[in-house]
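Lab manual, section 2.4: Encoding a predicted structure.

Procedure: take the sequence of the chain (395 residues), apply the prediction step described in section 2.3, and record the output as structure tokens. A sample record is shown.
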Amino acid sequence: MLRIVHGKAFSQQLYRRTKPRTRSRTFATKLRGGPTIQIQTQYQARGAISRYGYGQKRALGGIPTILLPPVVFGGLVIALWTWKCCMMVIFQNKIIYMPGLPPNAHRETIAEYRNQCDGIEWREERIRSVDGTKISLCVASVNDIDVWNASSIPPRLPFLSPALRMLGDRPPRDAPVRYTMVCCSYRGYWTSKGRPSETGIAMDAAASLNWVRNDFLQQGGSPTDSIPLAIWGQSIGAGVATNLAAQDHLFQPTGSGANISLQTLILETPFISVRAMLETLYPQKWLPYRHLWPFLWNHLDSLKALGVMSERFKHAGMESPKVILLEAGKDELVPREHGKVLEKRCQDFGLGVEKKTIGGAFHTEVMVRPEGRLAVVEVVEDVSRRLFSRSRGRG
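Recorded output:
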């Protein structure tokens, strides 16, 4: 019986041991447990070794046949989960911020929404962020103390304009007031350049404050005056707003320009942090996605930022801003527990806080409903009244 073993050397020996007169003949042998192989040349012997794998071990040879399907299927599931987890980590900026939605977002203009803005005239301003990235602002004013708001891009203008119009139409109770709303289009959104990230957006928000200060001076304001400011953020923007407010150096006197006085922090449908939202969106502990938080480089941690803001403002001898939480009654993304946790956080640090729930509103519908717009208007008017009372007391 002829045994075929693995290796090139044997195929050559097999050929050499064959007598010259039989090399041209075809002979066959019946291998134990194998097929009949006709070997005529050295290359056929080598091909038989390669084709039938004699002397080689199969990769799954040690696994019983009945277990092969679940092993293969389980391996595919693990591979798919691993691939998706890697993609979620690598592309977290695009998943969290989604700057390309809606699909035509980068080509929209203010003019397309002018008829829906309730007579409010918006204009676009182009500025450079702290790192030089070109970003865009939407600016509008009514009437004749100024209040600025950092918000979103043109699709939000029809929902912001009615609130600004209500402020303009309501008669001033104490003194003439001029309200200015500045909406920051962060990098990657609308016509702003760059790609969104937590670090980059924080620089864009800081650059918006610098623009507010410079615009105030260009409008005839005095460098010794104080600019009252309300920061307003929605959803992800609420995380940006709290982290911006935690940078107390932006609100301290600079000596070269007007001082920005942060009066109110309006947080519309806020969440605790990106990590908390991972646990909310993937509540099943057996899913790997909720356990990816160590790989996050976007945190937007409002819970931490509120505590930092309170401590820094106290250390700098400044009055902390009042915090307004606008909660959607039927929020399909952010659970009510997030609002309760943020409210308790403010109370623990002695911050003035007020939570308002807009009944029947979904996550993006707070400003769509009249009671949502009225809530914002009342907050801004309250800032005006408090400022007037202080100025009259000093007078």
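Check your result against the sample. Residues 167 and 381 are 8 Å apart (CA to CA).
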